[in-house]
Amino acid sequence: MACFRVLNRQLELQATPTQSLLQAAEAAGEPWRRFCGSSALCGTCAVVVVDGQPAPARPREAMFIEGWGKQEGFRLGCQLKLAEGDVTVINCSDYEFDPDAIAAAASAAKQQISKETA
After folding, report:
1. CA distance 21 to 65
2. Long-range contacts at 26-29 (CB < 8 A, ≥ 24 apart)
3. 18: exposed, middle or buried (C-beta count within 10 Å: 0-12, 13-18, 19+)?
4. 57 and which of 9, 41, 61, 69 could share a cystine (Cβ 3.0–4.6 Å)?
């Protein structure tokens, strides 16, 4: 079974291809900030994908990303699903949604992953 790795929380969440990141976190008993009931409307579950290939964004999430997703790899945890293999993310709420802090964390995460795979 593939998993979501949440680097800034040191989590590995097992998930099936039909489970979102939020559903996997909930199944593991891990708290995750959210307000819209997983409707892709609020962005409080936002993450940045730093490694792996998740399933493509569905239309509602794609509209949200187009309007708010300034960071490369920006996705909504309530919509993010696995496609093939593991997906590694950082949780944006842990950085208070600060774009500069998120960009720095994503860059550091990508560098860390590059070193691990070299």
Report:
1. 16
2. none
3. exposed
4. 61
What digits encode the pLDDT tens for the residues 54-112? 999 999 999 988 888 678 899 999 999 999 899 999 999 999 999 999 999 999 999 98
The counts of H helices and E strands in the chain are 3, 5
Which one, of 26, 25, 31, lies nearest residue 3 by Cα? 25
Closest by CA to 71, choosing from 101, 48, 42, is 48
Return d(Cα 22, Cα 49) in angstroms, integer.
14
CB count within 10 Å of CB 37 equals: 9
